[in-house]
Amino acid sequence: MWPRILLVLICISGAFVGCAKDSTRLTAEQRSVLKSVLLHSTYDEAPTFRYASRGEKTSAFAGGFLFGLLFVPAAMAMDSSHDDLATAYRLGNPSQTIEQTLTQRMVSEYGLGMVRPSEFVEVWEELDTLKRLYSQGLLLQVRTVQWGLEPSSWSQFHVVLKSSARLVSVQDAKEIWYATCASEKVDEEGDPKLEDLRAKDGDLLKTMVKEAMESCTAELWSKLKGV
To answer: The domain containing residue 182 runs over which residues?
Structure first.
């Protein structure tokens, strides 16, 4: 029983990549009909932009690996004690930014003629609900599961962004494409300190977050095209 419980906890914590949902690919036939269907698009509210120092990370998991696993749910539920950098420096919503860019690229690449304005919708699991909301066409959805600053060293930080996107055939209430992206560039010697990220109204932080969004968008777009 205990091995099974531990496996569940590991999956929850994301420690094993194999526990994550696999990406899927659009078929050539599905891509060929994109230009003739109505496209809806939605984005969700991004989670809290979190950051912690290397020392805080170490302290959070003191007591050993098993202790960490047993208390993963509690650790995940803890709020950061830091101020809200996303609001303070107007970092925007990565889900919305990625969704808008993907929609623009789909319009340009496939010549979509029927595109509805994007909406803030937090329905994801309930495909039948999406069918009632949109009736027909395809629905592009983007959501962000993590973004924030991770320690590169005891005092330096890098940006982490993890998002996912999918296409849903609304009338069939069926997911036809799903992919994830992750942006995390680490340079232990060159990554900035927190005071550098805060300087000049967060200009460096904004640039790093923007680059992470662009990287994530490019990864999702490449997967959507089947490259």
So the answer is: 26-75+82-224
- Which tops the pLDDT comparison, 4 or 210? 210
Total tally of structural domains belonging to the chain: 1
Token output for 28: 């050539």
Residue 187 CA, chain-centre distance (Å), reads 22
Query: Residue 93 has which token pair?
Result: 């919503």
Dist. CA 159–CA 151, nearest whole Å: 9
- Tokens 């929609």 belong to 103
pLDDT band at 131 (very low <50, low <70, confident <90, very high): very high
Residue 203, domain member (yes or no): yes
Q: Regarding predicted confidence, which is higher, 80 or 126?
A: 126
pLDDT digit string (tens) for 88-97? 999 999 999 9
Give Cα separations from 66 to 6, 7, 188 (angstroms): 9, 12, 28
pTM over 0.85: no
Dmax over Cα atoms in the chain, in whole Å?
58
In a domain, 38, yes or no: yes
